[in-house]
Amino acid sequence: MTVLDLAHFTDVHLGPLPQARLGELMGKRALGFLSWHHRRHRLHTRGVLDCLVDDLQADPPDHVAITGDLVNIALPSEFELAARWLESLGPAEWVSLVPGNHDAYAGRHLQRSWSRWHAWMRGDEPDSSGRFPFVRRLHDRLALIGLSSAVPSPVGQATGTVGPAQLEALDGVLEGLGREGVCRILLLHHPPLGSMIRRRRALRDEAGLRKVIARRGAELVLSGHEHFFLFGGMPGKDAPVPVFVGPSASLAHGPLRTGGYLRHAIDLSGNAPRFTVQLRHCEPGTGAIAVAQTARVECTGSGLELAPADWPKGRGSATESFPIRSH
Ligand SMILES: [Fe+2]
After folding, report:
1. Are 82 and 114 in contact (CB under 8 A)?
2. Is 183 a residue whose pLDDT tops 80?
3. Ligand 1 centre from 32 Cα, in Å?
4. Cα(168) to centroid of ligand 1, in Å?
5. Ligand 1 centroid from CA 156, angstroms
């Protein structure tokens, strides 16, 4: 039995916010700066994030996917802070990153800002750094496909756009990998979950993305943006495609909506991959890790649902260790 253990972190919102020069605080950034110091610094704490990272490193998965919002208002110094955090997490070939709307909070010089993250934001092709979609083949039968929905949006909005060039390239990528029978996992900050997402936070070209996925198929979509756990689905080519939204990895407020991350056990031994998800929280107060839920994705007559399940892979389990490719 071949099982891949994929961790999913999202909406890290690294703090504390570094000092900013007055000239850096123009427009939307100024409001974001005030919002951080008024409210958000209490919502996103390093203590919660460190608790989750400790768990990740003590019980390392085969790979880590991060679906954006590493920073808050896209100050140049935040990108450097986030790069150092990524370095502390583990080797770059162990971590795949796509950006979120906060990583594009201030629209100028995005490519230059993101260049510090290229080691984590790249595919297998040598010239793929910072280019989307990128493809990381982790196994003969599994690939991660990184999309960017991170674009600047007006004050009061947190929308995203993938854009026609990425959609066109994605069509070819999904078609090619699908023909090979590869499990295709899409990483994308904005969840393509239609009316489940508020309009001012939506993926603007979600219809276009859905069209490509309905035509070519995909096996799983991992997203963030909403800061709490959500599960949904969308039509695929031969079967519905599960969509998981991970909780923010630094959220510290309220007993029900604390920070957490997801672990996906992906069983590749059958004809079609089977997915089991585990939601791990950092308990407020104690700082201990708690498993909130372990469930298996099941296809029913009317769509997809989560059914309670045991975690199929753990320390000392009989499952075959996952043969990660090195690049
Ligand atoms: Fe976020």
Report:
1. no
2. yes
3. 12
4. 27
5. 14
Write phi, then psi, for 51 (nearest 5 degrees): -60, -40
Flag whether pLDDT at 311 surpasses 50: yes
Q: Among positive and negative, which fits the CA dihedral 36, 39, 28, 155? A: positive
Model confidence, pTM: 0.94
Could you give the C-alpha distances from 272 to 104, 184, 227, in angstroms and in order?
A: 36, 11, 30
E strands of 124-272, at which residues? 134-139, 142-146, 183-187, 220-223, 230-234, 241-245, 260-267
CA of 300 relative to ligand 1 center, distance in Å: 32
Task: Measure 143 CA to ligand 1 centroid, in angstroms.
Answer: 25
In the sheet with 260-267, reading across from the earlier edge strand, the strands are 95-97, 63-66, 3-9, 260-267, 274-282, 289-300, 303-308
**Which residue in the block uniquely carries the two structure tokens 């695929």?**
236
As given in the structure block, the two tokens for residue 245 are: 């939204």
Domain borders along the chain are: 3-308
Q: Which range is least confidently modeled, 20-29, 56-65, 209-218, 225-234? A: 20-29
Ligand 1 centre distance from Cα of residue 157 (Å)? 12
Evaluate if residue 320 carries a pLDDT over 60. no
What is the DSSP track for 6-62?
EEEE-----SSPPP--GGG--THHHHHHHHIIIIIHHHB-HHHHHHHHHHHHHS--S
Q: Is the peptide bond before 247 cis (omega within 30 degrees of 0)?
A: no
CATH 3.90.45.10 fits 3-308, yes or no: no
Q: What is the pLDDT of residues 114-155, one digit of tens each?
A: 999 999 999 999 888 889 999 999 999 999 999 999 999 888
**69 C-alpha to ligand 1 centroid (Å):** 5
Higher-confidence residue: 225 or 322?
225
Supply the pLDDT for residue 31: 86
The Å distance, Cα 13 to ligand 1 centre, comes to: 7
pLDDT in tens, 9-52: 999 999 888 887 887 887 888 888 888 888 888 888 899 999 99
Query: In 3D, which of 317, 304, 229 has the Cα closest to residue 267?
Result: 317
